[in-house]
Amino acid sequence: MTAEEFEAAFAAMSGVTVAFLHRCGRYAEPCRCGGYDCQGWWMGRQWEDAIVEDHIRARTSVPPPGVA
Length: 68
Ligand SMILES: [Zn+2]
Description:
With 68 residues, this protein is mainly alpha-helical. It has three helices and two strands. It has one domain.
C-alpha cells in the first residue's frame, strides 16, 4: 500500500476527501508500530475524531463580518 492509497482509504473511511485531509494538514506517515493489522502508514497525530471535530467546527463557526 502506498501513502496515496492509505490516504484514499482513510479519507473514504472518514467520509471525507484526500484533499480535505491535506487541507487539514493530514498526511500519511510511515508507521512502524508492528501491529498485526498495521498497514505501514498512519495519519500523523490525527485521528478520526479530530476530523469529526473539524466538521463540527466548520458547521458551527461564525463567518467573518461581511461574509454570508
Ligand atoms: Zn502501525
